[in-house]
């Protein structure tokens, strides 16, 4: 183990200055401040640093109603972790690595420590994050909620999350990432490693509510085993300075499924470089990557890549973009990489403005031009997400509506 | 009372004049039908009344309940009480028919669920509006929206096109409801219906017929008699005939 840790440190050190494969390079020296520490709270209601209404918009309920458990981290400190249902464990990653030696087997496996300077940062400095574990066969009905809150200016929030969903288990996670209002420039570097075992199912819904000075660099990797299902929903409709993320899922066992749905709205001054990549490595695996991008003057780079390694796979990629205002830009980059004649892969991409004909149709029913446009944009962002329990579907619908009403 | 009055209306589309001076008066409670060949300008007239910006009025004016409509946008006209059944409405992805109906500023308290059921649309309420709808389904969906909107002036563009016999009766019944055909003295709605085949007259009684030829109303009269003439002699005769 010591050797493994030393090797990781060595690789991280070597990558400490390595720019990311895409996106502007950020000078990490600009973010040198140390955040204060925070006390641990037994109850969510004791966390006075968080605004309940703002948290609700990111999917985090401070009353913990209809939640299977909660995790809250402010800056670098875990301030609360609780599991309310049988069959799940929730704790800080540091504590989990001390508690379970086996967890090291999952440490920096789905994400490479030397991917770039942001992954290296997380390994080279003290950090925390969450460990969420669904035990074999556990069926957790309510979603588990996690909140990553950035409060201190001019520092790098580093975190490393590990999620393990054991064989036959089903788990839904809602993660809200947010930062303090009017925060000065800060950087969020978050590693998330997901392990979806045989016949297990994980839906992961992430809402990002950043502020216009935030740099955001999440790094995620997902392994899905035989018969496993991974559904990722990503909602980002608040301004952000520069967000760049490109999670990759490896479908490693027969019949594994991955779906990525990304819904983004970019305000002027925001750059969102958001991709999803799925590597289909086993027969009968399926993938769907859907993105809906709306710009009100910001820039969105919508990447998507599916790689068909073996025969008998099926995958579809879809990037649709709406440019509402001049000055906005949507750059859709869909990529298909088929390595066998017997793969079934497709993609569609479309970027443009709202169809005037549709606006006028709604206006002929008495809606003003603004009302008609807003309704069409909301409809455009309204991706039908398959495979969710009704309660979670309603919850995601609510999150979408709240984000939309603020963003549009 | 006069609901719609059009005088000397000339309309251009993309720089080409389509309507060359239209005069038309529709009184409260009346139903008028517009006959005419494809391309004669019937749809242009309806779209101009509704106020779509592509249709540019170069001369004349349109007034509704005594108010000049020039300068009013499509939605302002809709809120004044003008409504239109589109012949080929666009598909709007992500907006369900039910959401659409809820968005419409309603002038009347109508039980949407019950109306949808009577229009055999219950199974369509959660579908994206017009997406994959058949001809008849589009008409029924348009009627549901109009019934919620409840306009005083109802503009119907070929309500019978693409509708099978079985649905024609249903659509006819609801157009009659929209036009308040069950009321006599208290009727405050009126209609202007484009029909290419005249088939709709078997289901909805009309008061006045007009024939449009090459951007002009060339003839007006009893709609049934006009339809018989057209069926017998064709629109070519209308173009030649000057009464």
Task: Provide a descriptive summary of the structure in words.
The complex is a heterodimer of chains A (408) and B (243). Chain A has a 10-stranded mixed beta sheet with strand order 2-1-5-7-9-11-14-16-18-20, with helices on one face. In chain A, strands 3, 4, 6, 8, 10, 12, 13, 15, 17 and 19 form a 10-stranded mixed beta sheet that branches. The longest helix of chain A has 18 residues, at 390-407. By secondary structure, chain A is an alpha/beta fold. Chain A has 2 domains: 2-356, no CATH class; 357-408, no CATH class. Helices cover 18% and strands 41% of the residues of chain A. In chain A, a hairpin with a 2-residue loop joins β1 and β2. In chain A, α1 (2-14) packs across α4 (117-124) and α5 (356-363) crosses α6. The model of chain A has no long low-confidence stretch (mean pLDDT 93). Chain A has helices spanning 2-14, 52-57, 93-99, 117-124, 356-363, 369-381, 390-407; strands at 69-74, 77-83, 88-92, 130-134, 144-150, 156-165, 170-179, 186-196, 201-209, 214-224, 229-236, 242-245, 248-251, 257-266, 271-280, 286-295, 299-308, 313-323, 329-338, 343-352. Chain B is 32% helix and 31% strand. Chain B is α/β, with parallel strands linked by helices and 243 residues long. Chain B starts with a strand and ends with a helix. Classes of the chains: A alpha/beta (408), B alpha/beta (243).
């Amino acid at each position: 183990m010591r050797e493994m840790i030393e090797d990781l440190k060595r690789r991280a050190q070597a990558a400490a200055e390595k720019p990311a494969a895409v996106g502007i390079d950020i000078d990490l020296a600009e973010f040198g401040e140390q955040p204060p520490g925070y006390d641990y709270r037994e109850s969510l209601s004791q966390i006075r640093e968080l605004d309940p209404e703002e948290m609700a918009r990111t999917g985090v309920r401070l009353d913990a109603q209809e939640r299977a458990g909660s995790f809250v981290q402010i800056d670098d400190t875990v301030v609360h972790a609780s599991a309310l249902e049988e069959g799940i464990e929730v704790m800080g990653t540091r504590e989990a690595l001390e508690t379970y030696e086996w967890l090291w087997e999952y440490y920096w496996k789905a994400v490479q420590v030397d991917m770039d300077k942001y992954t290296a940062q997380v390994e080279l400095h003290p950090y925390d994050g969450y460990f969420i574990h669904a035990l074999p066969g556990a069926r957790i009905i309510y979603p588990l909620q996690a909140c990553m809150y950035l409060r201190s200016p001019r520092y790098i929030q580093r975190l490393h999350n590990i999620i393990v969903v054991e064989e036959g288990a089903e788990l839904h996670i809602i993660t809200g990432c947010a930062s303090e209002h009017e925060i000065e420039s800060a950087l969020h570097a978050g590693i998330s490693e997901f392990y979806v075992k045989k016949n297990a199912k994980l839906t992961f819904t992430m809402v990002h509510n950043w502020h216009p000075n935030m740099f955001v660099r999440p790094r995620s990797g997902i392994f899905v085993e035989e018969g496993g299902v991974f559904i990722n929903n990503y909602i980002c409709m608040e301004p952000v300075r520069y967000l760049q993320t490109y999670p990759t899922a490896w479908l490693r066992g027969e019949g594994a499924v991955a779906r990525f749905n990304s819904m983004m709205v970019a305000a002027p001054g925001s750059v969102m470089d958001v991709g999803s990549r799925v590597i289909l490595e086993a027969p009968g695996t399926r993938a769907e990557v859907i993105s809906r991008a709306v710009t009100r003057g910001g820039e969105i780079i919508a990447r998507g890549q599916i790689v068909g390694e073996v025969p008998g796979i099926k995958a579809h990629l879809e990037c649709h973009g709406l440019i509402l205002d001049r000055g906005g830009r949507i750059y859709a980059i869909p990529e298909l990489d088929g390595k066998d004649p017997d793969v079934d892969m497709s993609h569609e991409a479309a970027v443009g403005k709202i169809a005037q004909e549709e606006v006028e149709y709604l206006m002929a029913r008495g809606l003003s031009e603004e009302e008609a446009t807003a309704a069409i944009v909301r409809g455009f962002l309204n991706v039908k997400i398959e495979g969710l329990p009704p309660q979670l579907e309603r919850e995601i619908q609510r999150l979408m509506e709240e984000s939309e009403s603020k963003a549009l | 009372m006069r609901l719609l009055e059009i005088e000397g209306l000339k309309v251009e589309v993309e720089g080409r004049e389509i309507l060359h001076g239209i005069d038309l008066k529709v009184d409260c409670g009346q139903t008028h039908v517009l006959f005419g060949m494809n391309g004669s300008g019937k749809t242009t007239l309806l779209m101009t009344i509704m106020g779509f910006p592509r249709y540019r009025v170069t001369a004349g004016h349109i007034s509704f309940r005594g108010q000049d409509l020039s300068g009013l946008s499509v939605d302002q006209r809709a809120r004044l009480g003008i409504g239109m059944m589109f012949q080929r409405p666009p598909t709007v992805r992500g907006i369900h028919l039910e959401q659409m109906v809820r968005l419409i500023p309603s002038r009347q308290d109508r039980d949407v669920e019950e109306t949808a059921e009577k229009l055999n649309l219950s199974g369509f309420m959660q579908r994206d509006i017009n997406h994959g709808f058949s001809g008849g389904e589009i008409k029924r969906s348009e009627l549901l929206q109009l019934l919620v909107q409840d306009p005083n002036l109802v503009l119907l563009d070929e309500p019978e096109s693409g509708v099978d016999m079985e649905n024609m009766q249903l659509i006819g019944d609801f157009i009659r409801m929209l036009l308040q055909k069950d009321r006599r003295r208290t009727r405050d709605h009126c209609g202007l219906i484009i029909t290419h085949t005249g088939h709709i007259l078997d289901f909805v009684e009309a008061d006045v017929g007009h024939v449009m030829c090459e951007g002009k109303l060339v003839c007006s009269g009893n709609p049934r008699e006009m339809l018989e003439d057209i069926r017998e002699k064709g629109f070519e005769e209308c173009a030649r005939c000057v009464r």
